[in-house]
Each structure stands twice: as structure tokens, then as C-alpha cells.
Design brief:
The chain contains 6 helices and no strands. The chain is mainly alpha-helical. The protein has one domain.
Length: 143
């Protein structure tokens, strides 16, 4: 019984002493769930017959929309460190990644599909910005 109390006391001291342990766990868990969600959604989109660039596009535009909405909501009226670290830094950061867009575009360029590559990168950026703006405006309208 003493061992359990000592272990609990030690864990409690670590958490109180260093909030980073909790934050790292929240970011990691959110990141894992975001990556799994990205994979499942991209796999579903590709199962409908669309290619990898379309699934990347849909995932990133959806992520930009949700990020715009959530970050604005957080700024306006939610003071939640958990929400920020778990959902925004963890989940959304792993759900959407610029590196995926970059590699997919590079692959198109390497295959000589320059116009499609240019459309891919500019479309992701333009519609990502537009989706983010829509998310921001929706959050402001609701809040």
C-alpha cells in the first residue's frame, strides 16, 4: 500500500512540477488521432475513385476550415489549454500537413505534369485560405 501512495505522490509531483508532461501527452494523443483521421478520410476518398491529390486537397481544405473556426472561437471566448494543445496543436496539425502537399506536387512535376502540379499547389493554398476565412467568419458570427 505504501508503494502505491509513493507512486501516486511521485506522479502528482511530476505533473505539478512540470506541466510539459501533460501538454506533451495531450499533443501526442491529439496528433495520433489526427493522423488516424487523416488516413481514414483519405482512404475513403480514394476508395471512391479519386486520386491521392484529391484526397490531400479535401483533407487540407477541411482542416483549414475547422482550424479557422476553432482558433477564432478559442481567441474569442474559450480559454482552454487542453483544447489548444490537444485539438489545434495535436489533432489539426497532424490532420493537415503542408509537406504532403509539397511532396504530391513534386511528384506531379517529376512526372512532367506541370499544369496539374501548379493547379495542385495553388488550389491547396487558395482554397485553404478561403476555407480558413470561412471558418473565421463562421466563428465570429456564432460567437
Amino acid at each position: 500500500m505504501s508503494y502505491d501512495n509513493d507512486l501516486y505522490s511521485t506522479i502528482e509531483k511530476i505533473y505539478k512540477k512540470d506541466d510539459h508532461v501533460i501538454v506533451i501527452f495531450q499533443v501526442g494523443l491529439g496528433g495520433a488521432l489526427g493522423a488516424i483521421s487523416r488516413y481514414l478520410l483519405a482512404t475513403y476518398i480514394e476508395s471512391l475513385g479519386y486520386n491521392n491529390q484529391v484526397s490531400i486537397f479535401v483533407v487540407n481544405i477541411l482542416g483549414a476550415l475547422v482550424a479557422g473556426f476553432c482558433i477564432t472561437t478559442l481567441e474569442l471566448n474559450v480559454e482552454s489549454k487542453f483544447f489548444q494543445t490537444f485539438f489545434i496543436v495535436g489533432f489539426l496539425a497532424s490532420f493537415t500537413t503542408f509537406s504532403t502537399i509539397a511532396v504530391a506536387t513534386d511528384q506531379l512535376f517529376i512526372r512532367g505534369q506541370y499544369l496539374i502540379g501548379l493547379m495542385n499547389i495553388t488550389g491547396n493554398i487558395f482554397f485553404g485560405l478561403l476555407a480558413g476565412l470561412i471558418g473565421i467568419l463562421a466563428a465570429r458570427a456564432i460567437n
